Amino acid sequence: MMFAGIFHPPQRGCRAGDPGRRLVRTYKGLMIVIDDSDSARTNEDAVVVSPINRVRGELHMPGDKSISHRAAMLSALAAGESNLKNFSSARDCVATLECLQSLGVRIVKNDARVVIEGSGSSGLQQPTHSLDARNSGTTMRLLAGILAGQSFAATITGDDSLRARPMLRVAEPLRLMGAQVEVAANGCAPLRIKGRRPLQPIRYQLPIASAQIKSAVLLAGLAADGVTTVEEPAQTRDHTERILPQFGARLTRNGNAHSIQGGLPLHSCNIFVPGDISSAAYFIAAAVALPDSDLFIRDVGLNPTRTAFLSTLRAMGANISVADERLEDGEPAGTIHVRGRALKETVKLDVSDALVSSLIDELPLLAFVAANIGCEMKLSNAKELRVKESDRIAATVENLSRMGAHIEERLDGWRLYRGSRLHGAHLSSFSDHRIAMACAVAALVATGTSEIEGARDSVSVSLPEFWTLLESVSE
User: Fold this and answer.
1) 397: exposed, middle or buried (C-beta count within 10 Å: 0-12, 13-18, 19+)?
2) Cα–Cα distance between 218 and 278 in angstroms, integer?
3) Quick one: how many helices (H) and strands (E) in the chain?
4) Which of 47, 111, 171, 430 lies in disulfide reach of 3, CB 3.0 to 4.6 Å?
5) Strand intervals (E) in 186-340
6) How far is C-alpha 67 from the geometric centre of its chain's CA atoms?
């Protein structure tokens, strides 16, 4: 199946009745067709994207994926009924809900509202089968922290991509706390966890900056007999630290060290999940790159550990303002307003060290934006990108090279040189939702049409509504 042309007239050979193609249905300028040709049968999940003039309108993003994971898990450990509003539509978060249900948690989901009847800190039940985290590293690693403090054994697995991602980094601190954690011979999933209650409190220094590992240890610390402390080398996303007190946990911070008191019961609460700023980033980037754009994104998360992308775009000359700032259950939220205008081609982006962790989800997208305006970008100390849903360093370099950018792959990043604007090309999502959406943004601004393999369905991992939302604000 293909999406042909976002706000683009049907091309020759794409009309209903043409040999080898059958029109399914049409939106305004966006055609979904089934292509029966030989080439299409090997590329059923491709999306064809044509350039547009501008992005204009108003969006409300589905709930933040990171916050939704944590809200669901803590609701399951709390006593009583929790109501979660604007819960993420991401396939990753569905995996979390399904895993919790397999642990005996009662969950009712009605669109973006999720009601969870908590089982209490020790009320989870041993699953009858392996827990399937699908493609979600957050589900696997955070749930491992919870299972470490339970009095039963469980196995967590996932899809091919997730089973290729490193898991020793979460197993090691949980073993220090007294849980038995086995991984595959290559250090990856499946994880086989035999929990212990109470766990041994520890003071653990993270070898790499990782919000997921930090969160796993803090969640395990809820079941420890004493105070557990995690110290990170650089600040990472702090959603876990912000949401734990909402459920009654006792958490303190001293610089980059976070301590949690174990053995305290959690209580239920009602949580509104702000819109996902990592998903909003793709629409922001499109509006920034297309002059005369005018885009509002309402009720979106503005957590300062997630807004480095906005700061970086502003440094490149983007016109981005924020209004209606407020706290929503411990999380900053507000409205982002983007006005498109010409960016600074002379900017040289140098991203390394602490800035990498602040931009980790947006780094491929930032490279596409930089290439679109012809500015230079040097990325280093970002080897973590190689163990995401795809090798995002290799995927970014290959796709940008296909679009005519002068970019060199480095072991821990890339070097993008100033050059000509991008042209349409045959691209690949590498079955990675963030690569698919970054390619789409680049294709909207590039000269000519691009085809992105594997892009139609892969976006569902984080934003199933991506193509519909993009169509709604494209002109």
Assistant:
1) buried
2) 24
3) 15, 26
4) 47
5) 191-194, 203-205, 227-231, 251-254, 257-261, 270-272, 294-301, 319-328, 331-339
6) 11
Name the residue type at position 423: H
Residues 336, 287: contact at Cβ < 8 Å?
A: no
Which of 384, 380, 413, 382 has its CA nearest to residue 396?
413
C-alpha closest to that of 471 among 86, 49, 12, 43: 49
Percent of the chain at pLDDT > 70 equals 91
What is the CATH code for 54-61+276-425? 3.65.10.10
Q: What is the pLDDT of residues 97-119, one digit of tens each?
A: 999 999 999 999 999 999 999 99
Indicate where the chain has its CATH 3.65.10.10 domain(s).
54-61+276-425, 65-272
- Of 239, 272, 271, residue with least CA distance to 78: 271
- Which is higher by pLDDT, 18 or 471? 471
**From the candidates 64, 92, 361, 432, which is the catalytic residue?**
361
Annotate 126-158 with DSSP letters as a single string: --SS-EE-TT-HHHHHHHHHHHHTSSSEEEEE-
Query: For residue range 344-362, what is the model confidence (pLDDT) as tens digits?
Result: 767 789 999 889 999 999 9
Q: What is the enclosing helix (H) or strand (E) of 373? A: helix 363-373
Packing angle of the helix pair 433-445, 363-373 (nearest 10 deg) = 10
- What backbone phi and psi angles, to 5 degrees, belong to 272? -100, 125
What CA–CA distance (Å, rounded) separates 136 from 162?
7
CA torsion, points 69, 74, 77, 83, in degrees to nearest 10? -90
DSSP annotation of 461 reads G
Report which of 355, 429, 426, 425 is spatially closest to residue 388, judged by C-alpha positions. Answer: 429
Active site residue 132: no
**Residue among 119, 109, 116 nearest 89 (CA):** 109
Q: Which CATH superfamily is domain 65-272 in?
A: Enolpyruvate transferase domain (3.65.10.10)
